[in-house]
Amino acid sequence: MNRKVKIVLDIVIGFVIPLLILNNLSELLGTVFAYVLAALVPVAWVLTDSFLITQRFNFITSYVGAFAIAQGLLAFWFVDGVQHTLKDSVGSILTILVFGISILIHRPIMYCFLMQGMNPESPHQEKSLKSLLTEPRVYRSLVKSTQIILIINLLIGITNFFLNLQVVVADFGTTAFNQQVAQVNAITRIAFTLAEFLGAGIAAVFIRRVMFYYLPQEPGKEHDESDFWDLLELRDRQKVFIDS
Length: 244
Fold this sequence. Notes:
The chain is mostly helical. Helices cover 80% and strands 0% of the residues. The chain is elongated, with a radius of gyration of 22 Å. The protein starts with a helix and ends with a helix.
């Protein structure tokens, strides 16, 4: 699927349609059904995209799919007040736990994301990339990048908790409740997504800079002008030459 088309679909299906359902269809469909439908539309899209359209079965799609399923199940937990606030913060809580545990067990989850994101096309490329990621500075950058994402999700979770606590005050099953949920989502889906992208961007730049520290340069070229896999291959050849 074209990347621009996917971004548009992500916005329309994951953001616009749920808001329209909550704000405009609660009375027509019934408040509870509209609430569940608005929650399940993005979940269905994520699962459809991951397993039917993209058809890539790896760590990233499994991670995204698991979170989508969790969100889908939570849609049937009909609560309001503090319980709803906690429910709406479950995504951040799970992310914090997963990222935090990965740091504690010395397996920073950014390593898994990077291995999948770089998409090595052969066992040799995969072996070379793993070797690069075990270099001391690269490993520390993976840990720090995992910490960056963790901190951002911690701040997102705290903000989301208090925002829901202040805005979503109506009883569950009312039109007012659905509209208040939509009001919070209109803020968080944009602001939090931008914060997550910013954090991921900072982490990616940081890791990339450290990785290039361990990669040689091709004659007459800057690192940015060379293909990453060519530089990694050149690094392997130099290591073989030095070892011999």
